Automatic annotation (TrEMBL):
Signal peptide extent: none
InterPro entries the UniProt entry points to: P-loop_NTPase, UvrD-like_helicase_C
CDD domains xrefs: SF1_C_RecD
Superkingdom: Bacteria
Protein name, as recorded: UvrD-like helicase C-terminal domain-containing protein
Organism: Rubritalea profundi
Annotated ranges, domain UvrD-like helicase C-terminal: 139-186
């Protein structure tokens, strides 16, 4: 990572705290009608929110819901399942379509105004009707585990309170922070941070350098 890691106290009001990130990284991409599907995919994938858990106040379900509330406040109709601009993560392989578990896509509309999901590929961007693609989940926030092997320009890493995430470890924190190529923001409580960094695992020797 070329930039710094910024440490911030875990916020009690998730929507207020997430709004600046959504407005800075995602809304300009979603609102720019001049961008191609490929450019929008790249723009959305430049930033991602990571958390170790699915459930709880700081799990991916709660964060994704909060992001959609913020998008809705800016005029995006997130009440639709396939709303324009929805970021999605593929859950299983479809070799016929060339779409694989872990691929991210972005929902838009085709020439007839129907929902269409675009994916990046080696031969360019490909778009499919939602009815054709494998199962997907909303992907504004992803678990740290699901992002292994991926990199983003910027990340927001959310570490829940200890009582909400018994799987905290130094390796988990290191893995999350190492997804960022340029900068990372870390949200956690002092207790969670202490418990996380005190657990000893391999491959975490670079952790302290990220905070220098």
């Amino acid at each position: 990572m070329t930039g710094a890691t910024v440490f911030q106290k875990l916020p009690s009001r998730l929507r207020n705290a997430l709004t600046p990130f959504v407005e800075t990284h995602w809304l300009p991409v979603l609102k720019n009608s001049e961008l191609s599907a490929a450019e929008k995919l790249t723009g959305i994938d430049n930033f991602r929110i990571l958390t170790p858990t699915h459930k709880g106040s700081y799990g991916i379900a709660a964060i994704n819901q909060t992001v959609e509330q913020i998008l809705a406040s800016h005029g995006i109709d997130t009440q639709q399942v396939w709303y324009p601009g929805r970021s999605v993560l593929v859950q299983q392989n479809d070799h016929a379509l060339g779409i694989y578990n872990g691929d991210t896509g972005l929902t838009g509309t085709d020439a007839e105004g129907n929902p269409s999901v675009s994916f990046a590929g080696t031969d360019g961007t490909r778009s499919f009707s939602p009815a054709r693609i494998p199962e997907v989940h909303t992907a504004w926030a992803l678990t740290i585990h699901r992002t292994q092997g991926s990199e983003y320009e910027h990340i927001l890493l959310v570490i829940p309170p200890v009582e909400d995430s018994p799987i905290l470890s130094r390796e988990l924190l290191y893995t999350g922070l190492s997804r960022a190529k340029k900068s990372a923001t870390l949200w956690c409580t002092e207790q969670s941070f202490k418990q996380t960094v005190e657990s000893t695992v391999q491959r975490a020797s670079g952790l302290s350098a990220m905070f220098e």
